[in-house]
Amino acid sequence: xxxxxxxxxxxxxxxxxxxxxxxxxxxxxxxxxxxxxxxxxxxxxxxxxxxxxxxxxxxxxxxxxxxxxxxxxxxxxxxxxxxxxxxxxxxxxxxxxxxxxxxxxxxxxxxxxxxxxxxxxxxxxxxxxxxxxxxxxxxxxxxxxxxxxxxxxxxxxxxxxxxxxxxxxxxxxxxxxxxxxxxxxxxxxxxxxxxxxxxxxxxxxxxxxxxxxxxxxxxxxxxxxxxxxxxxxxxxxxxxxxxxxxxxxxxxxxxxxxxxxxxxxxxxxxxxxxxxxxxxxx
Length: 282
Description:
By secondary structure, the chain is an alpha/beta fold. Helices cover 40% and strands 13% of the residues. The strands form two sheets. The chain has an eight-stranded parallel β-sheet with strand order 3-4-5-6-7-8-9-10. A two-stranded antiparallel sheet has the order 1-2.
């Protein structure tokens, strides 16, 4: 086992209303195929040292993820698993049914984190109440949200008995300052901020600032972006199906970006959204 793998096992963040903790670096599975190739990718991630796997009903690969976890030989309690509720399944009974369907596809007895994938107007409160019941059942060790901005969080806070443990949002240096209001809100309320699409889906990997820093630190642009997220206190979910990149994206625990370079990276913001932008959603 290499030093990076050893170190990563200790780098975790505590979640509110959760007995366990979440590894700060996870493996995202968006667009990972629902076949043997996808299964091999998850198995490689686990053998590399990832202990945090992120899937969703919408990804249509929960079966592959669950099967890989079972085949890995790693104790279930050592793996932090997230799945998510899709927009078509918001509402009390629909939410409960969708969770059961996800659990059946995963073939596991619990998930560590269950997220509301999108802030569906008019159903957020009913959905959150249903998710609180799922949490109280013990089959989801923590519950949270994804793509929620401050006004979406304010909406469920009015009825919530349990505060979301996590808010998973598109986050990278190219929208960092544009997302400061929701980042600050989450931190003020004990909500862990989790960065998805931290690599901008490849759109900014050739940015000259990143490539120059890559040369300075003997790392790739992807590794610079992941390390930036970790040093800014976010948990982070890089995704790749390419074996070399799965391994490369994990190799980020042996260097530190200095303060001056962190500020340089902060200043790359251009309010970039490479996915659907929820800031204007009611």
